[in-house]
Amino acid sequence: MWLDLAGVSASIDARPIVTDVHLTAGPGEFVALIGPNGSGKSTLLRTVYRSLRPSAGVIRLDGLDLWGMRPRQAARQRAVLPQHGQGGEGFSVAEVVATGRHARKRPLERDGAADRAAVATALDRVGMGWAADRLITTLSGGERQRVLLARALAQEAPLLVLDEPTNHLDVGSQLLLLDLIRSLGLTLLAALHDLDHAASYADHVVVLRDGRVAGHGPPLKVLTPAFIEEVFGVRAHVGPHPITGRPHIAVASQNPAERNG
Ligand code: ADP
Ligand code: MG
Question: Separation of 168 CA from ligand 1 center, angstroms?
């Protein structure tokens, strides 16, 4: 699926938060949205998952105006993995994942064999099939985030929008989730806060600063040390990763305290 944002602006309480953003993600492409806290990443994503109507510009999915669609039609096009995996108290993992099927059914339609199969497939894809009958509140943060990813997959939408999906996860769970997301073959738009993750996983980065696009393109073309210093106010170094040999972004404070050994 093609996602295309053309001149998108968004305001909250009449205050402009995001201004004139252009962005394209092609089928199977991973576009990472990065930028300092408060730069407007979540606000921009809200316009794509339809919780905030743009004040200007247009968002197209395969050429169709997202905000012109009926809610159910839009829900079949794009799924969302939110920032904090909260909610679902009292529900089993399978029940939570089954809510991802709502967009694909008529109102109040019961779960059928196709729904149960989609739930099982989605849980298997994220390696959580073993937990189908567990209460979601009994899972670790990383496991819960994979279940919420399964819920998004059960929706069978070709575009997946993610807002800092690895927040609060330990390093192993972060990489597991990113590997999983990358392997899905979906069009991906994800706000990421880790520059090295963006560089390793994304095909394209779009950098927001004060709600405007400050840079965009292939990660290593955009994320030069000078650019990182300008936007994030940290020193940066790009060099081969000591384990994988792939380009790696290391950052350091501009005013490090003197430390010896
Ligand atoms: P990011 O996700 O990049 O950290 P946000 O999109 O959350 O940035 O926030 C961008 C700006 O919009 C911030 O100044 C923030 O305070 C403001 N903002 C975000 N959501 C709201 C809201 N619901 N009400 C008022 N201001 C908001
Ligand atoms: Mg945010």
Answer: 19
Sheet with 78-81: strands ordered across: 78-81, 159-163, 187-191, 30-34, 204-209, 212-217
Query: In 3D, which of 119, 52, 48 has the Cα closest to residue 77?
Result: 48
- For 76-135, how does the pLDDT look when each residue is reduced to its tens digit (9 = 90+)? 999 999 877 667 788 999 999 999 998 887 777 788 888 899 999 999 999 999 999 999
Encoding tokens for residue 87?
């909610």
Q: Give the closest ligand to the alpha carbon of residue 18.
A: 1
46 touches ligand 1 (CB under 6 Å)? no
Q: Whose CA is nearest to atom 20 of ligand 1?
A: 43
For the chain, how many structural domains are there in total? 1
Domain hosting 167: range is 3-260
**Strand extents, DSSP E, 48-174:** 56-61, 64-65, 78-81, 159-163
Residue to mutate, 13, 15, 17, ligand 1, most ligand atoms under 8 Å from C-beta: 17
pTM: 0.94
Q: Which of 185, 139, 163 is nearest to 49 (CA)?
A: 163
Assigned token pair, 45: 């994503």
Count of residues in the chain:
261
- Look up residue 216 and give its two tokens: 């965009």
DSSP-derived letter for residue 163 is E
CA of 83 to the centre of ligand 2 (A): 8
- Tell me, what CATH number does 127's domain have? 3.40.50.300
